[in-house]
């Protein structure tokens, strides 16, 4: 099992990012890995959670 992930690196934002930047990065990341984008890829569900 993998250790804890740095949320800034997961979202691709700098540590001093504003709440607006963090929210935008979060929403973009959700759209990228959402299981509905490719239902035939079972790994998407795990990445979305």
UniProtKB/TrEMBL annotation:
This is DNJC4 protein. Signal peptide: none annotated. It comes from the Eukaryota. Gene3D superfamilies: DnaJ domain. Residues 6-49 form the J domain. PROSITE patterns: DNAJ_2. InterPro entries: DnaJ_C4 (IPR052763), DnaJ_domain (IPR001623), J_dom_sf (IPR036869).
């Amino acid at each position: 099992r993998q250790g804890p992930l740095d949320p800034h690196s997961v979202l691709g934002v700098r540590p001093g990012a504003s709440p607006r930047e963090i929210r935008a990065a979060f929403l973009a990341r959700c759209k990228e890995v959402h299981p509905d984008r490719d239902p035939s890829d079972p790994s998407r569900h795990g990445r979305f959670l």
